[in-house]
Design goal:
Length: about 575
């Protein structure tokens, strides 16, 4: 069987000379160019992405597996996206990385690819890019950090930062203790160890069947993580021989399985956007409303922060995603194919659970409603989402007076103003934080509560925005309002004092303002100018789609395959 790479390395002519000879400057012996499968290892390693900083070692273990199975591994870098450092938000660059991945794979002599991802956006970016090329591909997640430990207690990355910072603002925690906690939270290599976006997306990788069983939960520093990487390298070679392409795995059933798993693990709302974008690359017709339909009967089974109390290390010891999927029983499409060549049903049929407090039985869930609720109404005709498992039940049906912030800077400057006219029955509204407006749709939707209310002991309020929120966050937070304010959605026209109705049971979000008044405001509204006239920001502004379309670029939807006919020499 002749593989794609033989078009580069096979010919005995001038071009073949050039392709092989320059590679040999790395000490690669001639026999590696004999037509064996070339496995690209797509690496998001970067010291600026602390969650992925151990990936060189992970890649070395993938290489061992590739060599062992008779393949030829070649590691290549793509832009890395670190959630904790990048401004204005890592999400702005997810689509850029997906283009980097797609074009790097297509332009090079690669027959199959192992995708190394960890920090939030690296996972969807690599999947989107690889899906648009559609070669055999397997993902290895970097694994979560060990549990944070502060004064003998487990603390979770993200979730406890939000909690501690609110405690400092209301005087319940000293700055000294706060800074001590900073040293104790992130103790090892790996990504956030709560069920935030990174852990959710690593679980999605497993549920989609594009990672090996236990891909999500094994801690980054556990030797089993490196065993899994080794096995993935071996398997990538076999997948090339079997022509097991991504499109054979990323089917409609795989996406439905992933949506149900996100519900069962109490996963991040960010998974909604990313799965819509990935589906768009493989031609699977997934809509925002599918999330509501498929999630309604899924209970939250996994007792992890932010919905529960444990962390990913505990999840691993309890049995991880296979145990959860087994517990979901008939809700899972068991015939879906996975990268190890077996069906999902075969992978999970004997999956044990070792701790029933961490992974609850279906009959005794942590919460009855684990899915993502999709809202509609005049304020979000194309949809908005809320995570019921992270919200306050008493606020899920609420009518309140809007306290409006026109930008993130406006919110920061006024939220703690003692004269801000706000009480706990109000609804905080944040505009211009969507894909186009920020740009990049940052994780600011879970805006802080006014400190004067925190001091009164208020712990939650209804908040509405066109932003996202961190998967580690919690609260009665309506997100991803579409269309966003900067695209002329009704959100742009909300003013202080307007009454807003949230009714999660009936999936409704309504701005209670007369139509004549809305029309008056509409006539006076002007679309904000792009934040930059040039470069990637401008490309993003002009082509990003709304949240209900996964915030992908309009011109990236679909796949182009891996064929490049034209030679370079
Ligand atoms: Fe990288 Fe949380 S900051 S996963």
């Amino acid at each position: 069987m002749k593989f794609r790479s033989s078009a580069w390395f096979g010919p005995k002519d001038k071009a073949g000379f050039i392709h092989r000879s320059w590679m040999k400057n790395q000490g690669l012996p001639d026999h590696l160019f004999d037509g064996r499968p070339v496995i690209g290892i797509c690496n998001t390693w970067s010291e600026l992405t602390p969650c992925n900083a151990h990936f060189r070692k992970l890649a070395d273990h993938v290489k061992r597996g590739v060599y062992e199975a008779g393949g030829f591994p070649l590691e290549f870098p793509v832009m890395s996206l670190g959630e904790s450092l990048m401004r204005p938000t890592a999400m702005l660059f997810r689509n850029l990385v997906s283009m980097d991945v797609e074009e790097s794979i297509r332009a090079n002599p690669i027959d199959g690819v192992v995708l190394l991802a960890g920090c939030d956006k690296t996972t969807p970016a690599l999947l989107m890019g690889a899906a648009s090329c559609d070669l055999p591909a397997i993902m290895v997640s970097g694994g979560p950090m060990l549990n944070g430990k502060f004064r003998g207690q487990d603390i979770g990355s993200g979730t406890d930062v939000w909690r501690f910072s609110e405690d400092v603002r209301c005087g319940a925690m000293s700055e000294c203790d706060f800074l001590e906690a900073e040293d104790c939270m992130n103790r090892s290599a790996g990504h956030c160890m709560t069920m935030g976006t990174a852990s959710t997306m690593a679980s999605v990788v497993e549920a989609l069947g594009i990672g090996l069983p236990m891909n999500a939960a094994i801690p980054a520093v556990d030797s089993h993580r490196y065993t899994l990487a080794h096995e993935a390298g071996r398997r990538a070679v076999e997948m090339v021989h079997e022509d097991l392409r991504l499109s054979k795995i990323l089917t409609c059933k795989a996406f439905e399985n992933a949506i149900r798993v996100v519900g069962a693990i109490g996963g991040s709302t960010n998974a909604v956007i990313h799965l819509l974008a990935i589906a768009g690359r493989v031609g699977v017709c997934l809509t925002l409303d599918d999330w509501d339909r498929l999630g309604r009967d899924v209970p939250c089974l996994v007792n992890l922060m932010p919905a529960g109390k444990y962390l990913m290390e505990d999840f691993y010891y309890a049995g991880g995603v296979p145990a959860v999927m087994r517990e979901l029983g008939h809700l899972i499409h068991r015939e879906a194919l996975t990268v190890n060549g077996r069906t999902l049903g075969e992978n999970i049929s004997d999956a044990p659970c070792h701790n029933r407090d961490v992974i609850r039985p279906f009959s005794e869930p942590l919460m009855p409603d684990g899915g993502i609720a999709v809202l509609h109404g005049n304020l979000c005709p194309n949809g908005a989402v809320i995570k019921p498992s992270a919200a306050t039940p008493a606020l899920m049906n609420h009518r309140g007076r809007a306290v409006m912030f026109g930008s993130i800077e406006d919110m920061h400057s006024r939220i703690d103003d003692p004269d801000l006219e706000v009480d706990e029955s109000c609804i905080l509204v944040l505009k211009n934080c969507g894909p186009r407006g920020y740009p990049g749709m940052p994780e600011v939707g879970n805006m802080p509560l006014p400190s004067k209310l925190l001091k009164k002991g208020i712990t939650d309020m209804v908040r509405i925005s066109d932003a996202r929120m961190s998967g580690t966050a919690y609260g009665t937070v309506v997100l991803h309002v579409a269309p966003e304010a900067a695209a002329g959605g009704l959100l742009a026209l909300v003013q202080d004092g307007d009454m807003i109705e949230l009714d999660v049971d009936n999936r409704r979000l309504h701005l209670d303002v007369p139509v004549s008044e809305i029309e008056r405001r509409r006539a006076a509204w002007k679309a904000p100018a792009p934040s930059s006239e040039r470069g990637y920001y401008r490309l993003y502004h002009d082509h990003v789609m709304q949240a209900d379309r996964g915030a992908d670029f309009d011109f990236l939807v679909g796949a182009s395959g891996a064929v490049v006919d034209r030679e370079s020499h």
